């Protein structure tokens, strides 16, 4: 009886082992969710973050170019008019760059601004004079600060050479545009989001004076 039970257990163990091997061969390996979103391109893998950068640069131009046009006739400050013209011209340049990059990478870009951006455009289209100047400068300065963090984060870690090039160009433009807007003297820096709190610094090891132990 005991021999029979041992034989049955041995056969059962063998069956389980064979079944495990069969499942391992049939079932696909676990896939990293992030890697599953990658697309291979001639310039390297394209990630969801890379695509998001292309979208955000494109949409920034789609509302900032019309906003710059508004400044020609709605702004009171001569400097705001000048800044509006500069932003419109340089976003046309940047928009051409992002469309060229997207074509190389096979990415379909949006054709309209985000709902928030459309709301900002409507707000500016209804204003003139000092109210326009103030809101134009502060809306665009806040928007540039947000897109800057996206561009910088992608630039620091993208595996795609084309996206890396575009992100580098984007950082240059966004930094320059923040400077333009701040040159008007109308930016309310107290209303900008504060930088994230840095992580605690690791403890510093105490230096040991080896002379005391000599």
TrEMBL record:
Residues 191-214 are annotated as: Disordered. Residues 49-177 form the DUF4142 domain. It comes from the Bacteria. Residues 193-203 have a biased composition (Pro residues). Pfam families: DUF4142. InterPro entries: DUF4142 (IPR025419), Ferritin-like (IPR012347). Gene3D superfamilies: 1.20.1260.10. This is Predicted outer membrane protein.
């Amino acid at each position: 009886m005991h021999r029979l039970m041992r034989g049955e257990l041995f056969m059962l163990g063998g069956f389980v082992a064979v079944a495990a091997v069969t499942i391992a061969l049939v079932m696909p390996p676990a896939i990293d969710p992030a890697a599953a979103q990658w697309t291979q391109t001639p310039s390297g893998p394209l990630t969801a973050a890379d695509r998001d950068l292309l979208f955000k640069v494109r949409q920034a131009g789609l509302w900032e170019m019309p906003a710059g046009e508004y400044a020609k006739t709605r702004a009171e400050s001569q400097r705001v008019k000048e800044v509006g013209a500069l932003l419109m011209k340089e976003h046309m340049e940047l928009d051409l760059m992002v469309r060229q990059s997207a074509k190389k990478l096979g990415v379909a870009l949006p054709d309209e601004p985000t709902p928030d951006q459309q709301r900002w455009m409507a707000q500016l289209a209804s204003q003139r004079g000092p109210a326009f100047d103030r809101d134009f400068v502060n809306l665009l300065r806040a928007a540039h600060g947000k897109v800057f963090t996206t561009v910088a984060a992608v630039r620091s870690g993208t595996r795609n050479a084309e996206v890396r090039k575009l992100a580098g160009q984007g950082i240059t433009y966004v930094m320059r545009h923040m400077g333009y807007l701040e040159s008007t003297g109308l930016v309310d820096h107290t209303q900008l989001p504060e930088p994230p709190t840095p992580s605690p610094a690791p403890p510093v090891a105490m230096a040991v004076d080896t002379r005391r132990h000599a």
